Amino acid sequence: ALRALRAVLPALRAPARRPLPRTAGGAAGGAVGPGPELSARLLAALDPRLGEGMYAAWRGAAAAEPPLLRAVQALRVTAAPFGATAPLRSVTDDRGRVIRQTDWPLGESTLTMMRVVFDTSGRDPVRAEFQYTESGSSVQRSEQLPADTSFALGPGRVSLQAQAGQDLGLSRLVGRAEYSREPGVTARFGAALPEVTLGVSRPADDGRVEVTVHSGEPLVWRLSPGEHRQAAHGGFEVTVRYTGAGEPPNVEIGVATLPVRADRRVLSLDSVYDTIAVGSWVAIERPRKGAEGGVPGDPALALVTTRVTGVRTAAYTGFGITGRGSELTLADPWLDEHDVLLSTIRDAVVHTGGETLRLAGEPLGDEVHGHEIELAELYHGLAPGRQLLVSGERTDVPGTSGVYAAERAVIAAVEQYADPRLPGDHVHTRLTLTADLGYRYRRDTVRVQGNVVAATHGESRDEPIGSGDSSRPGQTFTLWQSPLTWLPAGNPLGALPVLEVRVDGLLWHETDSLAGRGPRDRVYATGTAGDGRTTVTFGDGVQGARLPTGHENIRARYRFGSGRAANVGAGRITQAVTRPLGVNAVTNPLPATGGADADGPGLTRRTVPLAVSALDRLVSVADYEDFARSRAGIGRAVAREVFDGRRTVLHLTVAGVDDVPIAEDSGMLAALRSALARYGDTRLPVRVAVRELVQLLLWARVKVAPDHSWAVVEPLLRQALLRRFGSGERELGVPARLSDVLATAHSVAGVEYVDVDVFTGVTAATAAARLAGAVEPSPRTDVAARLAAYREEVHRVTADGGESLTSVAARHGIPLAELLRLNPDITDTRPLAKGRAVSVFRGIRPAQLALLSPEVEEALVLTEAPS
User: Fold this and answer.
1) Residue 126 contacts residue 117 (beta carbons within 8 Å)
2) Residues 314-353: pLDDT tens digits?
3) Bigger pLDDT: 96 or 542?
4) Radius of gyration for the chain, computed over Cα atoms and rounded to the nearest angstrom
5) What kind and span of H or E run contains 306?
6) Residue 109 CA to chain centroid, in angstroms?
7) Using one digit for the tens of pLDDT, what is the confidence trace for 794-837?
8) H or E stretch including 377?
């Protein structure tokens, strides 16, 4: 488990980059000129009628070419035409026996069929079968061949001739003398039947049959067994099929009337669908339409997409079945003149009942990093120089997910942008930052918050604190609330109270001391009463002006509240005491740092003499150290002259009061650096860093003296050790000694002896590696805490198979990017070979502070030794 933790530590330790202030030149490398945002502001200023409506319209306007895709629908209903699953029509003989099955005519079409059956040898015709089908009813007739007869068939008559020798009728039909020598069958249809003449020849030696259809013009086909033909001829749809296997050889000719054009737009569905309305989209799939060997006709009808112009619920009777379903009238035809049989639409699939889907923008798959952020929409009010907070899930932590972070950024430039290469792209805002983001974020988790203000702890009050009396010198008043809030400042003290005192509405100024002030100087001095409240003392008319007489004419505007309690974590501040107009919610994406309690007696005794040692003039190294230690919020400081690899610098290591964590970008450090530059030697390079913590680990067994209770001795011993090795007593660069542990333990009443099992220290860089390894066999005599020094640390690969760059970075607790920076000769990601030496640190390590932290309970483990 700790091995996995070591792999992610370098990424977690990577600090967020400090945003650079925007300069007049904008972002580095950025174009300078009147962009769309500036032009929009000028338009709004020149024409007040535009107002805020301009940005609302601009946000929804499409800057690119109109998209070809207007809408997307999900068709939720899948249906079939009525009759698609109907059984084939049965054909019976004279005795009513079913001899075969055939297809139904489609819609209002009529189907006239002739079937010539040959003998078993497939040479001579022996029977002719006729059938007329209309509106679901059919009439059949069968004649044995040869024959020369005429008979009624449905609404018309049929003249049948079948000859074994000369076929004069067919000869006259086709005008070919050579055909008259072949035997065959000729049928003429008349009256209300289709006026056509059908002819079927006797099979030739090659097995082919000649089929002739005459309806004004002859249509001749020569078919081999198994062939199928279909074509429109003379206003009819003609279908011919020559069957030579599986049943007696036969030739079947079907003549169907073409459907009415209006019927080609009517689609009868197999069931009732309430979700279909006028205007709904319909997509009809017919895979075989227009395909080779499929249904002849227009290939465009293989997929018809159209709208519904009419819809009703109808009852159907046809194809030998009955049913009830939705009858749709379409805007475009879905059938053509070739669709005369039910078989042409049996494979049709109807998609309808559409649900309109909202078109989403094309997602950007890359991560958010670098110095550019492309927002999803157009946002008004983002201006160069404005601060942002960028938060989201980090993607640069290897092997894990769910790590969230936030960092500050400053806008360098704002561009309202639309990509002309993306059809339908709308205008959105693109931000250029003054510096690259410190982390990489998953795009769909990123939040960019723009209403960013610096917030400090303390509640505001504006109230009268007393009445002035010109007859009384040196009047003193006490603020009602405490403690008074102090904020970092660049003065020698390092902080200023948030206090403003006005007398009769005129502002008076705070001074360190009234001594030396003139009788007209409107000044006051602050102090602290015994109960911790702040006092305000005015002059006596000689040293500082007296107060004028008035009733409650002295008002104080101040803030109260401070201390470590203000160091809350990220996302903990969610309620606003007051809500300005337009503010809906508040939060703190970053943790609060830098809060410290008031100096206790011990710290006060140490820092008060330091204030007069340097007298606000920094000359020696000790002056820098004393100056830093005397500042508010800083509990420890040590200064040294150190070589940084190029030159000698003055390095100052600081720690917060009670070792309160200090962020690198905190206002306290910024104020300290500013004060050092103001009061120190401008030619001396100064580096300020926060201490490196050495967490002490102390595990011991304690023998309790006779007549004493472990329940009483253990808390006393724990308090004594935490007091001796806690933040209140420890100094920077001072090692922790085992002898001090034993001496402290024996000073507690009831402790007979102490057997220390573990006494060591771990730093952030070595914690994972130290804890993953074996426990030291014996406690150390002392735990080192070094002073600031320049170091060059090298890692040598000892594993036989080499080591990866990631493992080396994890072992030493540094980001992979830092490892590559320190070793520019590493140009690829191959594992480092055994014996290879790489630099893992080059620079100044700050001074260390070794202490026992009460926040880590496992750091101090005390157990009772058995008797």
Assistant:
1) yes
2) 988 888 788 899 999 999 999 888 887 888 888 999 999 8
3) 542
4) 49
5) strand 303-318
6) 59
7) 999 988 888 888 788 877 767 778 888 899 998 888 889 999 99
8) none
3-state secondary structure 287-304: CCECCCCCECCCHHHHEE
**Least confident interval from 446-455, 499-508, 662-671, 690-699:** 662-671
Q: So what CATH class is 601-690? A: alpha beta
Other CB atoms within a 10 A radius of the CB of residue 85 amount to 11
3-state secondary structure of 597: coil
Domain regions of the chain by residue span? 2-65+363-449, 110-257, 261-336+347-357, 459-562, 601-690, 693-864
Tokens 């205007």, located at residue: 279
Residues 622 and 540: their CA atoms lie apart, in Å, by 39
Burial class (CB in 10 A: 0-12, 13-18, 19+), 789: middle
Alpha helices in 154-211 (DSSP H): 168-174
Residue type, 264: R
Listed residue (512, 458, 508) closest to 486, CA to CA? 458
| Residue-level length of the chain | 867
What's the whole-number average pLDDT of the chain? 83
Measured CA to CA, the distance from residue 842 to residue 827 in angstroms comes to 19
Q: Please give the structure tokens belonging to residue 484.
A: 């008074």
pTM: 0.59
Return phi, psi of residue 664, to 5°.
-65, -30
Question: CA 847 to CA 173: how far, in whole Å?
Answer: 117
Exposure class string for 192-204: b at 16+ Cβ within 10 A, else e: ebbbbbbbbbbbe
Query: Rounded to an integer, what distance in angstroms lies between the CA atom of residue 709 and that of residue 729?
Result: 28
Rounded-to-integer distance, Cα 596 and Cα 843, Å: 30
The DSSP code sequence of 112-145 is EEEEEEE-TTSSSEEEEEEEEEETTEEEEEEEES
Q: Given this structure, which CATH class describes domain 459-562?
A: mainly beta
3-class secondary-structure state, position 561: coil
